[in-house]
Design a protein that fits this description.
Strand content: 15-25%
CATH topology of the largest domain: Spore Coat Polysaccharide Biosynthesis Protein SpsA, Chain A
Oligomer: single chain
Number of helices: 12
CATH architecture of the largest domain: Alpha-Beta Complex
Helix content: 40-55%
CATH class of the largest domain: Alpha Beta
Radius of gyration: 20 Å
Order of helices and strands: HEHEHEEHEEHHEEEHHEHHHH
Number of strands: 10
Number of domains: 2
Length: about 325
């Protein structure tokens, strides 16, 4: 968070910014540090964790600009990034949302910063490992658009919500983030609404942001399972809203078959774990827990917390 605010402070020297931080009931020293080191920041404190979408929506009610930049706290804005995005949208009134090139800690492009909308075929390719085997394929790698180097600007179906500039009048007219989505894919749903309303979404590689994606190996099985199930729930809502109930049911069936397939693939490693390196054995057990959770989700409640309450994975 501190590095993000420092980069925004530098950016504000080129483009006036109204910086709003919604603190989602953090338990560290975030609030204290912001008050001490960034007194110009408007800080909104929540006693409860209300979720990503609701937190952003509450912050929106305090924003006064004609554009809103949604930004994750684990990002660092490169000089001129916001100005580049804003200048493009000033010149292109039909662009509702614009996103930058997002770089991982190792300097590589985070390819999902510009991607296609979810589809049933995409779900099959992801679970069957075809996307991993043929990532550069225009068919199997279509969802993440991995066949493209992300070095040229273009209109794209959707961009990553970790960093996205959105036209305020679009939000006021067509609605804020969908608070039904627990986390993940609020960006996909928002971009889909933009296209449905006659706007477009633009990717601009000349604007750059670092995304310090958390890669902790200490994530519990329960936490990882909740992450996966919330993604599944978000997909379910997306298919239900934009493709119909029948497509959503097909998605559940794909998750069921795909989870069984991945569990079967993992069986040899689990059975022969005693001869495997420790790291491989641990990854296999975590993956097994993840797909068991997804299997239960596909045939039981679509509420991730209810599934994990009935079948804890500690």
């Amino acid at each position: 968070m501190v590095d993000c605010l420092k980069s925004l402070d530098e950016e504000s020297r080129h483009e006036p910014l109204e910086i709003i931080v919604f603190d989602n009931a953090s338990t560290d020293r975030t609030v204290e540090l912001i008050r001490r080191d960034f007194p110009e920041v408007r800080l909104i404190e929540s006693k409860d964790n209300v979720g990503f979408a609701k937190g952003n929506n509450e912050a929106l009610d305090h924003a006064s600009g004609s554009y809103v930049m949604f930004l994750n706290p684990d990002t660092i804005v490169h000089p001129g990034c916001i100005q580049t995005l804003k200048s493009f949208m000033d010149e292109n009134p039909l662009t509702a949302i614009a996103g930058p090139k997002i770089l991982q800690p190792d300097g590589r492009v985070q390819v999902v910063c510009a991607r296609q909308f979810p589809s049933l075929l995409m779900s099959i390719f992801e679970l069957s490992l075809l996307r991993r085997i043929f990532p550069r394929s225009r068919l199997f790698g279509r969802y993440r658009m991995e066949y493209w180097d992300h070095e040229s600007g273009r209109k794209v179906p959707c961009i990553l919500g970790a960093a996205m500039l959105v036209r305020r009048d679009f939000l006021d007219k067509h609605g804020y983030m969908d608070e039904r989505i627990p986390m993940y894919y609020e960006d996909v749903e928002l971009c889909k609404r933009a296209w449905c309303a006659g706007y477009d979404v633009q990717y601009l590689p000349e604007a750059e942001i670092d995304h310090l994606v958390a890669q902790s190996a200490a994530v519990s099985k329960q936490r990882l399972a909740l992450f996966v199930l919330e993604q599944g729930e978000a997909y379910w809502l997306y298919f239900s809203d934009f493709r119909g109930r029948g497509t959503a049911l097909c998605f559940s069936a794909i998750m069921l078959v795909g989870s069984l397939f991945r569990i079967l693939v993992l069986l040899p490693v689990l059975v022969l774990g005693f001869i495997m390196p420790e790291g491989v054995r641990q990854k296999a057990h975590v993956a097994h827990a993840k797909y068991m959770a997804l299997l239960r989700w596909s045939v039981l409640s679509k509420d991730p917390e209810k599934v994990l309450k009935r079948f804890p994975l500690n």
